[in-house]
UniProtKB/TrEMBL annotation:
A molecular function (GO) term: hydrolase activity
Protein's UniProt name: SGNH/GDSL hydrolase family protein
InterPro entries found in the cross-reference section: Ester_Hydrolysis_Enzymes (IPR051532), SGNH_hydro (IPR013830), SGNH_hydro_sf (IPR036514)
Any single Pfam family the record assigns to this protein: Lipase_GDSL_2
SGNH hydrolase-type esterase domain residues: 51-216
CDD domains per record: SGNH_hydrolase (cd00229)
PROSITE patterns: PROKAR_LIPOPROTEIN
Keywords: Hydrolase, Signal
Organism in which the protein naturally occurs: Microtetraspora malaysiensis
Record's signal peptide: 1-31
Amino acid sequence: MREHRKARHSLTACAAALLAAGPLLTGCAEAVSQAAQSASVPEERPPVVMFLGDSFTVGSGPVAEWDTYAADTAKTLGWQLVTAGGSGTGYVATGRVGRTFERSFDRQLSWRPAPDLVVVSGGHNDRRARPSTVRAAVLNLVTRVRERWPVTRIVLVGPIWIDTAPQSAYRTRDAVASAAWLAGVPFLDPLTQRWIADDRARVLLPDGVHPTLYGHLRLARWLAETLRARGLAGDEAAPAALPG
């Protein structure tokens, strides 16, 4: 009988201890459950966007790469930015670095993991090339990007001209736009904008070609607004590809 009373006393003590520890155990269980739920839901990352372009994109003169319109657009839209290309380059032009856009893509971008969006911006330096040659080079580059990253979206931005553009720039613009239509990718046209009003010195560097810091901010504002309007900013569904 004495043994029975001792066993019953021990059980009662254990039950009391469990009851006393109940809130603590419950709190630990809730913390573990919340941690497990957090671990099971991956953190949302910003869109990775690659810009491929000429000196307007990679920077020139006093404007560094991290201050260009490409960088300002990325800051505005919350992108993770990768920039490639070089001064004087284009779809056909090789510039000082000795590379076309396609060659820059191969060397600087193609080995990386797939981005969400590739923006190819240029044509300024291709104005002396035959439009048919430019169009073919654009199509080759788009095909190359699609072969490497089949689900990555592509946007083409035409030649940038801060001052009055020559007729050759419009022919190049039309060649890039034609290739974009044939490939079924969006085309954005900076030549439709008037970048200089009464503030030439504020927008244009003394070389008469490249934008100032303020000019880059103007370009970035236009590009960000246009991408948002076209559903390409990264925070909305992309529109269906145009039939070529």
